[in-house]
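Quick one: structure for this chain?
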Amino acid sequence: MIYSTDASIYQIVPKAVAFPKTDDDLQIIMEYSLQNNIPITPRGGGTSLAGATVGDGIIIDFSMFMNKVLDYNPEENWVEVQPGIILDELNRYMAPENKIFGPDPSTSNRGNIGGAIGNNSCGAHSLLYGKTIDNVIELNAYTAGGNNLKLGPRGASYFDQQLEGLEGNILNTLNSIRKNYIPEIISKYPSIQRRVSGYNLDELVNIDNFNTAQFVVGSEGTLVTFSKAKVKVHDKPKFVGLALIHFDDLISSMEATVSILEHNPSAIEHIGSMILRQAKNNLEYSRMMTFVEGDPESVLAVEMIADSQNELQDKLEKLKIQMDKQKYGYSTKLLLSNSDQQKVWNIRKAGLGLMMSAPGDYKAIPFVEDTAVDPKVLPEFVREFDQIVRDHDTEAGYYGHASVGCLHIRPLINLKDKSEVAKMKSISKEITDLVIKFGGSISGEHGDGLVRSYWNKKMFGEKIYKAFKELKYSFDPNKLMNPGKIVDAQEIDENLRINPEYKTKKIKTGFNFDKELGFASAIEMCNGQAACRKVTSGVMCPSYMVTRDEELSTRGRANALRGLMSGQLSENSWKDKELFKILDLCLECKACKSECPSNVDMAKLKYEYMYQFYKRNKLPIAQKIIGNINTLSKIGCRTSAITNFISKSFIFKKILELFFGIDSRRDLPKFAKKSLVSLSKKFDFTKSNKTVLLFPDTFNNYQSPEVGLAIYQILKKSGYNVIVPQETGCCGRPMLSSGQIDKAKKSIKFNIDILYKYAKEDIDIIGVEPSCILGFKSDFLDLVDEEYIEKAKIIKSKTFIIDEFLTENKIWEKFDFKQPKYNKILIQPHCHQQSLLGNKHMEELLKQFKFNN
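Got it. Here's what it folds into:
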């Protein structure tokens, strides 16, 4: 199940998954494939939107081990890498010399260079750097059976050589294609920059600089796979700026693109209203929407590069004047700072995930999302495209690379409905006709895969399609290399991940999943885009970052849960220990809730899974202890002298390791002699002061009361009375983590009854431990019934994490303070706080208290 999907709408369960570490490993796998007649599908990050990286044979995952830089020569502008290296990792490696690999698809923070080569990826800056084919120098390749091919620059003389075996057969086929198909190639291949459909037969037209490595780029693993690649690198631009042009309608933005190209931009990216709307509803991306003015239907992000700041400013100003003069857009905003520009790029790169973030069965799916035409005809093409979508009684989201006429247009389709699947096929047919009419390509960078290969015969004609098959069989006579892609394709409605026969089980959940439209729907929010596999930015997903193991990514876990809920995994799988391990190793950090563009909340899904698991399995004593940590801490605090002595003993630590899985090298936190609740009885109270409530979480109550006392001193000095309620219980979070939802609900209701008495009197509730106090602003609202929901909402409105409260009340204005002894301090933000609130309050506090962080 874990490797049965990628970022496409397809699912095929493979027979096996292989993780080569060396060239020898890869060759053995390729030999095994031929000996046992098992197909091979090479795979990197699994980010294909076309279904190019799913197959029913052996999936070769290069990303886990074969992800290194092998050689690097910045003076000669090349680098040699293994296929599993992530593009952003490669660029970070070359950053000291200000070098970059040019192609930059939106998945560059998790997509591998092997996928870029297999797909002929492009990205936003193909005006500068071309496609991946323009950046490949050499490949060390293998065919099914283990034949090693050294691919690279050959020139015209290559076609006069006499070669033996498989290489001879390949060369004979290339010569045959040159002899019989050149006029047809010239006639049928579109004269545009962005054509990645089919094979690169157009490379055979002019053979003076023929390169066998470049020839196989974009072949999607149907001809060869490879163990290393030598690619070109480029100087990073010195000065970069953005002009953001806001439009009230889509077509005007397309018309403006033609005019903008006269200014020689480095990129023109289109961001449509569907993305902008969904970004506003996303925890992480809503914080980045400061660049948007008004409520635009379309935004064009136009990038300019220059050798000086003055030159850059001049280019952007001239563009702005031109747009105003031609009355394109209602606002043109210039961005010169890197941080402001990065917000725009983050939103743009998250486009496909943001489009898919609305719950429910209708999704903006990828099936006609990669068309490319000459930018000069883009306005009329988009107008007719949009009409086809509307004629089918649906709507679409728009974004993409306007600079090269490649827009990613995704109609809303419900794949669970048979008539909607028919609608998808009908739209696909009409859009293919439209692309041919405008002399374009059905794929501009995402490749053919399972979703577009079916249309290659129609796009290129019978003769070229015949040449494709001849080429394929010369490299792969046994049809084992990623079959069904480019040639011999399935219809586009086969092997759908979600389809009219797809059904999910109805189970009684512990959590309320109404806003997600059910537990199964919450799982289906994962569309496979693999943002959880990024390792160079953010904190999602920590278990994947450490292990590079797909099953320990958010996507891997969602696939496993979907298998459970859809019946693709048996009912006994609810008791499966390996499946339990996959979910149990989720850290519940909630990074995915904010950083996943599609709002997948794996922590909440894990809580529910653990609850369902322990309804069917015995709850271990270790989990019972975790769930009762508040009660045990209370006892530990009252007997702190004895407890602290015992907890340090070697025997006790070994018992904890043997029976409860707590590493014996770990020192347990010490219990305080007196709890915060006990100490708070001596807090001063002044009638004229405003009163606030400090919630006594387990750790600060029984183990670190000095933290609570310090907060009391700050609040008291700022003119507040501080109440610490004497009777609150555990917040409930430890019970959720250990699968004890029913018990957590009782604790949450108990605390709501207590806190509501204060909240309704307009008393603010302040917490120190983020996972505890933020529960009242998030998860706990999905665990209470109708009787408690209004109380819970009022408590939510009055609840603050400590730095949030101090910042919003401008605590620095309420008392005098000295210049700090340290210029900077190191802070480790709590994962829940970073995900649910961000760190802006902490940053503001540091600034106001004169820390130069």
